[in-house]
Amino acid sequence: MCATRHPEPADEARELRGRLEEANYRYYVEDAPSITDAEYDRLLRRLQDLEAAHPELATADSPAQRVGAPPAEGFPEVRHAIAMLSLDNAFDEDEVRAFARRVAERLERDEADIDFCCEPKLDGLAVSLVYENGLLVQGATRGDGRSGEGITANLRTLRSIPLRLRGESPPERLEVRGEVYISHSGFERLNDQARRLGGKVFANPRNAAAGSLRQLDPGIAAARPLEFCAYQVADIDADRLEATHSALMARLREFGFRVSPELDAVRGTEGLLDFCRRMGEKRDTLDYDIDGAVMKVDDLRAQRELGFVSRAPRWAMAWKFPAQEQTTTIRDVEFQVGRTGRLTPVARLEPVQVAGVTVANASLHNMDEIARLDARIGDSVIVRRAGDVIPQIVSVIVERRPADARTIELPEHCPVCGARVERIGEEVDARCAGGLYCPAQRKEALKHFASRRALDIDGLGDKLIDALVAREWVRTPADLYRLEAERLAELPRLAEKSANNLVDALARSKQTSLARFIYALGISEVGEATALALTNHFGELEKLMNAERDALERVADIGPVVAEHIHTFFAQPHNRETIEALIAVGVSWEEVEIEDRPQPLTGQSWVLTGTMEAMTRDQAKARLAALGAKVTGSVSKKTHAVVAGEAAGSKLEKAQQLGVEVLAEAAFIARLERLEQGESE
Hints:
It contains 25 helices and 26 strands. The chain is of the alpha+beta class. The protein folds into five domains: about 10-65, Helix hairpin bin (Helix Hairpins, Orthogonal Bundle), CATH 1.10.287.610; about 90-320, DNA ligase/mRNA capping enzyme (D-amino Acid Aminotransferase, Chain A, domain 1); about 325-405, CATH 2.40.50.140; about 440-590, 5' to 3' exonuclease, C-terminal subdomain (DNA polymerase, domain 1, Orthogonal Bundle); about 605-675, Rossmann fold (3-Layer(aba) Sandwich), CATH 3.40.50.
C-alpha cells in the first residue's frame, strides 16, 4: 500500500497563493465570492503556517502579508496615509486567552488589570472617511490596505455619514474608519423591490452593500439601504486625542457618527470572554450580520507601546464565530408536501458543519428559486445558516459543476398521494391537487372542513383533530361522521358529556348549504364569496363537478387561474371519492333554485367594517354577493360603498378621506331589501 504523497512546501505555498488571490479578486473586485469565509480562513491560516515554518517562501505579494486586492478600474486610486490593516483572528477561547496573555506580557502588567474595548464585528465593507475642517473631503475603500478606491460621491449619499461634523470647532483633520452594511430589514426590502421589477436579487447583505458602493453612478448607492457604523479614529489633531479608544468612540458620537450600541469596555481575560459569549447569544436577534467580535486594548498609549506586526496590530484581535456559510454538494432533491398542498424542493446535501450545526438538508423554496440559482444535482454550493432559520443555498459554484450534473424537475404527481401536481400560470408555488385525500394535507384539511364558516362542527378543535389523526381514527372528513361517543370518551380530557356533545354537533352539521360545502372542500383559491358565486351559477354540485374550464370562467369574478384550480380539484378521482363518501354518511343541503334575476351590484366593490346587530357579517357578505357585489377587505378609490357598523375604525376614516359613500346598518339593510325586490339602485 503506497503512502500518501504530500506536496512540497514551495508547491503547496504557490497553490495556496493562487487560490487565495483568485478568491480575493472574486470577493473584493467582482463582488462574487467563489468560496466561503470559513474556507478562505482555513487556506490563509495554512499559508501563514507554511511561511512561518519556511521564511524563505514568504513573498511581498503573498496574501499572508497583505490585505485584500488591488483597486478595480473605474474609480480613482486613493493612497491611505495610515495603512488599513486587518486583524488576527481567534477561533476559540484558548486563543482569546493567549491574546490577553501576550498583551499583558508586553505591557508587563497583570491580565486582570487591563481594560479592553469590545464591539461586534460587522459583516460589511470597510471604508475610510477623511474630514478637513469639519467637511467630508474623501471616502475610500480599504482595497489592499495601502491604497483603495475613491468612492467619495457614493459615500456622500449615506445618511448615516455626516457631511459636516457636529460642533462649533471641528478638528482640522480627522480620519474615521468604519463599516458600510445593509440591515436584514433593508435587505429584504431591497430584494422584494428587485423581484417586483425583475431586477437582480442579491445573495446576502454583504454582497449587496459591496456591490452598491462600487457602482459608478452615485444614484444607485443613494437608492440602496446602506448604513455606516464607525469603529476607529485613524488620525486626529493631537490636542483632540483622548486617553482611551472608548473615549474616542464617545467623541465620534458627538461629531455625529453612529457607533455600535453594543460597544462595551471590559476588564481582563474574563471580561473579553464574557463579551464574546454575549455577542454569540445575541447574534441572531440583531437586525444586521456580524461574524464575530473585535477586542482592542482600550488605553491608546498602551496601543502605541504594543505596536504592529507586518499585517496586524498587536493590541487588537477579532473573535470569529463559527462560520454561517460553508461549501458542500447537492446529492439529490426531494419534494415535500406541506399542509396546504404546496410542494417544496429540499436539497439533500453532503453533511457539513455550519455555525456549529450539522446541515444535511436545505430548502430550495420553489422552481423559480431553482432557476434563479441554476442549481443542479451534483453541484457544489454555498450553504448559509443564520440562527434557527432553515439552512438555505446562497449560490452555486458553477465552475465546479461536474459533467454528470442533473437538472431538477418538478414531479407530475404528488410524492405522497399520487394526485396531479399543478402549477398554474405565473404562480410561484406548485401544489398537490389531492386536497382532502392527501395524507400530507389531512390535518389542515380537516380543520378547515370543521371550521365555523365551513361545516361549523362545534367542539371539534385543532387539538382534538390532531389526536384523532394521530390515532388514525380519522383519515377523511367522512370518517368524522362514523365516530361514536363511547370511543371518543377514551381520549384524554374528553369526558362522556363532551363526547356526546361532539357527536350531536356532527349530526347537526350534516345539514348544510351547498355554498358552505363547496367552501369546506378546501379548493385552492376558493373562498366563501367564490363558493357562493359557484352555487348561484350552477345550482347543483354535479354540474359544478363536471364543468369545463371555459364554463367556470363565465362565473362572476372567476378568472383562468381559479378556474384551473377548481377543474383540477374535481378531476382527481380521490376528491370525487371523498365527496361521495360524505354524501353517503348523510351530508346534504337543500336544492338551490337558480333564478334568472338581475344582479344590480355587478362590478361593484363593497367593504364591511365594525359590528352589525341585525345580521352577521357573513350574512351581509352573502346577500351582497347574491346581488353581484364583490366584498373586499380594504378601502380604495375603486370602493363603491362602505357599510359601517358599531366601532368602525380605520376603514371608515379612509372612506371619509377618499369620499367613498358610507352607509349605516339601517340604511344598508333598507337598500338591500329594495334591490332584492327588484327596485333599481
